[in-house]
Each structure stands twice: as structure tokens, then as C-alpha cells.
Amino acid sequence: MKQKIKILISSLFVIISIIQVGCNSTNGQKAEITSDNITGSESSEVSNLLSVNCYACHNPNTNSHDEILAPPLAGIKMRYINATNDKEDFINRMSGFIFTPNTEAALMKGPVKRFGLMPKTALNEDEIRKIVTYIYENEIEEPSWFKEHEKEMHGGKNNKKN
Questions:
Q1: Whose CB has fewer CB within 10 Å in the chain, the N or C terminal residue?
Q2: Residue numbers of the domain that contains 136
Q3: Band (150; pLDDT cuts 50, 70, 90)
Q4: What is the spatial distance between Cα 78 and Cα 108, in angstroms, rounded to a whole number?
Q5: The CATH number of the domain where 157 resides is what?
Q6: Would residue 91 count as lying in a domain?
Q7: Would you say residue 21 has pLDDT above 50?
Q8: What's residue 41's pLDDT?
């Protein structure tokens, strides 16, 4: 019973937080998405999917680490780059986690502890793979405070690929 109440409270917190982020935390700013390798209508589709589905919680326009609802995508990308061998491994591992989030598969145990497990998305596998491919192939916008946070928390370790 306690576990069900905890899950319900966590779910409500996520929903309320998403609504607040959409309305308040970006001060009207939308994260800018650029594409290096995806062109035309597919780029527009992936850009929209990323903005609407990912930046609700992973918005790079937050003012501080204390305002975020989930880790920045730039940090997630860095962690997956460091934990995988190549593009295919990166895409498979990140897509698998996003499609079926679970604590056993989570690479980022600290953020899971702080924010809770990412909720299951309504996106289908193809949409998730497109977003993850985009994340791998393109530079992802970082919050202004991100580099300093990485240096403080993780010693500024370099990643294999940006």
C-alpha cells in the first residue's frame, strides 16, 4: 500500500512539474534545436518531437541545477557516449531505456535517486530511435550552468564524443 501511494505521489509530482515547466521555467524561451545530419521534413519532425516530449523535463534553458526536473540531455548524452562502444550501441541502449524505463537499466543512478525514474513515454519505438539518433549525431544545447556543474560533480571528465 505504501509503495502504491509513493508511486501515485511521484506520478502527480511529475505531471505537475511538467505543467509548471511548460508554463514557467523557461521564461518563454524554447530550446533551439539545430540539425547537422537530419534534413527536410524529418528534421522538423524530430525537432518537434524533441521539443515537445523531451525538453518538458530536460530543458536546457533552466537557470540553475536546482530548477531542473530531470538531467540535461547534454549530460545524458555524455553518460551514454561514455558507456557505449559505438553509435548503434548508443542508440539501442538509450532507446531501450526510454521505451521501457527501469531502475536496473538506468545508467544515471544519481538522477534516478534525485528525480525518480523517468515515466514511460507515449512515443513509439520509431520516434524514440529518431530522437536518440538525433541526439547522438548533433550537438545538444547545454544549460549555461552545465559545464561548471560537471566540473564540480564529476571532475570535468571529458567524454568520448560531443
A1: N
A2: 62-162
A3: confident
A4: 11
A5: 1.10.760
A6: yes
A7: no
A8: 60
Q: What is the pTM of this model?
A: 0.70
Report the alpha-carbon distance of residue 93 to residue 107 in Å, rounded.
10
Residue 160, in any domain of the structure: yes
- As a whole number of angstroms, the distance between CA 28 and CA 43 comes to 23
Nearest residue to 146 via CA among 82, 58, 20, 87: 58
CA-CA distance, 29 to 92, in Å (whole number)? 31
In a domain, 53, yes or no: no
Band the pLDDT of 77: cuts 50, 70, 90: very high
- Burial 23-58, CB ≥16 within 10 A → b, else e: eebbeeeebebeeeebeeeebeebbebbeebbbbbb
pLDDT band at 14 (very low <50, low <70, confident <90, very high): very low
Residue 152 is predicted with a pLDDT of: 85
Residue 119 resides in a domain: yes
How many folded domains does the chain comprise? 1
The Cα–Cα gap between 125 and 97 comes to 11
Q: Alpha-carbon dihedral of residues 32, 129, 153, 156, nearest 10 degrees?
A: -80
Separation of alpha carbons 40 and 27, rounded Å: 29
